[in-house]
Amino acid sequence: MVKPQDRRWAAIALVGYSLLLIYWMLFGFGRAPHDTYMYNLKPFLTICQFLRAGDFMSARWLVNMIGNIGVFIPFGLLMPMVFGGKLRREIFLFLSGVVILEILQLVLKRGSFDVDDMILNTTGFLLGFGIYKLYDRMLSKPI
């Protein structure tokens, strides 16, 4: 059970992290607008390309594969604290935000709309959510 003061701090952290992530995804890391719209609508196309390349220590691979998972783990940790821990509701909220962010990247031509990014982002969210649930279960068990 999350205490009200913990819920408040988690909400502040969630909003702050969301704003930071929006900045990273649209403007950070030297992102400049493209001349064309970039998108991938075919699931696992980008993921398979990176896995086939086999260069697992390159900066591009780390940013795309590990980064797209890792930076979304905090959402899986914080959202249950703020919204109560119901996976169905929270994954809907999470996916809504990710889709909006991907659409913004497409429309503003600052990045690409990539269904694989959404798959990796959701993997990160689910990892964080699983860690939260495991920790919550451990705390609720009597010693």
Terminal CA distance reads 17 Å
Rg on CA atoms, Å: 17 Å
Major sheet strand order: 1-2
Q: What would you call the shape?
A: globular
Quick recap of the structure?
This protein is mostly helical and about 140 residues long. The chain has helices at about 5-25, 45-55, 60-70, 75-85, 85-105, 115-140, and strands at about 40, 115. The chain has one domain (about 5-140).
Characterize the structure shown:
InterPro entries: Teicoplanin_resist-assoc, VanZ-like. This is VanZ family protein. Keywords: Membrane, Transmembrane, Transmembrane helix. This protein is an all-alpha fold and 143 residues long. The chain has one domain. The chain contains 6 helices and 2 strands. It has a two-stranded parallel sheet with strand order 1-2. The longest helix is centred in the C-terminal third of the chain and has 26 residues. 18% of the residues are buried.
Please tag this protein with its features.
mainly alpha; 143 residues; globular
Secondary-structure map with pairings?
Blueprint: H1 4-26, E1 39-40, H2 45-53, H3 59-70, H4 73-83, H5 87-107, E2 113-114, H6 115-140
Parallel strand pairs: 1-2
Helix pairs in contact: 1-4, 3-6, 4-6, 5-6
Keywords: Membrane, Transmembrane, Transmembrane helix
Pfam families: VanZ
Protein name: VanZ family protein
